[in-house]
Amino acid sequence: MTISPKDVRGVSRTVLVLTIGAVAALHGQNEMTGKEILQMMTETMNPQQSQAIMRMTIVTTSGQERTFEYRTFSKNGGEKSLMKYLKPRRVMGQAILMLNDADDIWIYFPRTKRIRKLATHAKKQKLEGSDFSYEDMGASNTFIEEYETVRHDDEEKENRQCYTLELTRKPESSAGYSRIMLWVDKEYFVPLVIDYYHDEDIELKEKQLICSDIQLIDGIYTPMRCIMQNKLDDTQTSIEIVEVSYKVDLSDEIFTEMGMQK
Amino acid sequence: MIGLSIMVFIGMMIVGHASTEQLDLYGYFEPQYTGVWHEENYYQFHTNKLRVDLRSDAIEHTELGANVIHTLYCGKKEWTMLDFLPERITSSIPPEMVSLFQFTYRDSFFLDNAYLRLSFDRFALTVGKQQISLGSGYFANPTDAFNVKTALDPTYEQPGHNAIRMDIMLSHRLQLMALYSPIEMDWRNSGKLVRIKIGLGHFDISFLGNEMPHITTDFQEMRATRERRRLFGADVVGELFGLGVWGEGVYRFPEDDGDEDFYEFILGTDYTFESGLYSMLEYHHNSLGKSDYRQYDLNDWMRFFTGEARTISRDQLYAFAQYPATDLIVVGSSVVVSGSDRSTVIVPTVQYNPFENIDFTLMLNLYLGDEGKVYSSRLGNGGFLRCRMYF
Fold this sequence. Notes:
The complex is a heterodimer of chains A (about 260) and B (about 400). Chain A contains five helices and 13 strands. Chain A has about 260 residues and is α+β, with helices and mostly antiparallel strands. Chain A folds into two domains: about 5-45 and about 140-235, Clam (outer membrane lipoprotein receptor (LolB), chain A); about 50-140 and about 245-260, Clam (outer membrane lipoprotein receptor (LolB), chain A), CATH 2.50.20. A 13-stranded antiparallel β-sheet of chain A has the order 6-5-4-3-2-1-13-12-11-10-9-8-7. By secondary structure, chain B is mostly beta strands. Chain B has one domain: Porin (Beta Barrel), CATH 2.40.160.100. In chain B, about 10% of the residues lie in helices and about 55% in strands. Chain B is built from three helices and 20 strands. Chain B has helices at about 1-20, 85-90, 300-305, and strands spanning about 25-40, 40-55, 60-75, 80, 100-105, 110-120, 125-130, 160-170, 175-180, 190-200, 205-220, 225-240, 245-250, 265-270, 280-285, 315-325, 330-340, 345-355, 360-365, 380-390. Chain B has an 18-stranded antiparallel β-barrel. In chain B, strands 4-5 form a two-stranded antiparallel ribbon. In chain B, strand 2 and strand 3 (about 60-75) form a beta hairpin. The longest helix of chain B is centred in the N-terminal third of the chain and has 17 residues, at about 1-20. The interface between A and B is large, with 43 and 45 residues.
């Protein structure tokens, strides 16, 4: 039997989760550092593989609702992801491929059959006018790699006991938020509330994400509904999971330019 | 080949009839009002365009796609191209030839695309009338011998082309594309293209070679000649120092002594600011263009108007900025400057999305150049209001 680098990576992740789990059990969860909690949360939120249909609803400044539905595929703990729009007609067939934790982004336009590669600065752009940016949607490990983590006193949020984490952007990072406050459910390791602070003002709260309706699906705790509120524009966008499966075997060919066009 | 497209279309209708739940019917209706001030006169011109798309993937690994376009014209439908040309050129045209430069917009109904696509994990074959989009440039695509973009509205969709196209994924980021576009069933004069695309780090790099027929019209004699052009080119897109960067270019390889060699390239960069302001800059050079506007002749102008030539002037700078003013309104502007004659056109745009499947686009064109220059005010200032309703 041969072991590929991919297998090694998968094994490493499993070992890491087990190690952190063991640490938590031995020393009690209160002994966990902010970094360990963040690692657990990232693992929970980015399963090895997933396939889902999502519904995104944007509430505009005029109070109207815009609904988008898309199919998503994700592999390697979110390192590769593909979104294909199903609704509305205006964007149907449009696909967004994100590789290397959204450091490489391609967009496919079905009417012109054109594929455009976007530079990383495009991650700051809003996704179809929603309150989510490409960075919010695509990057699985941004919190770990781009921010320093500090754990504060536990707090109650959304009627659940939560770990409180403060993430401060590393000096060399180009991530889109200067600071992030995270409240992570102590039982499920799912973020319940995330406050995003403005890129240039560490005190100015720009957006707030609230996750709810946590269900156990294929052995993974999954928030079925998340709402992103833009505090500056007074708009909000919700994402609901219509269906999701983690027990899938996705081929690498899905995450290619040819895969976008299928 | 047209017969093949129609067969694909009919096949699609049959498949769709047999399995209506797997036949997708969609498209858009697009009325557009255009107004132009020209020589102290105001002209209005109106189009109603209906595009209907059909798509079926009833059979595994198979996609049938087609669309028809019906366009109705009203308002000023009859135009004379000479009205837009410098007087020093029009004055040299004999009166008996003037009528040859008149044209009329006629209502049209045509099959724009009709193709069959077989696709597997690492291989795809597309046969029929299909969209072909090549190159990374926004304002122009030198590597795309099939389409010519308009400077004012470069992202508008292009017509389909008859072709047989094969895509092979050799490895994760190594892709080969071969395309044959038959013309009069003559292999020598038909279009052929081979492209290999490689992913290196954050860059996508393509190398291509093509052999395409090119029609050149002598508008003094009203005679068209067809020549074969063999082009070699490359295309690169990626990121440097946080900026998006791209470039593409071609060189015409002369086969015979009489062949004119030329080269054309475009270089571009873009950046999105924290505020959401998107900005882009492109430089385009076409050695077939002229560096002195006093040398622009009738053929240059007419070849530019008819799409036979991509540009008249040799060097052009294209700048574009776009900003989401609200969640429903995007404002922007592009500026095209001819480096060869220093003329400029400014194109402000407003896009408004009041309802889920309805878009409005307001686009103005303000030509600031002097008489005889490529972006001369003689081309007529004005703009259009376009609504697009998707169904």
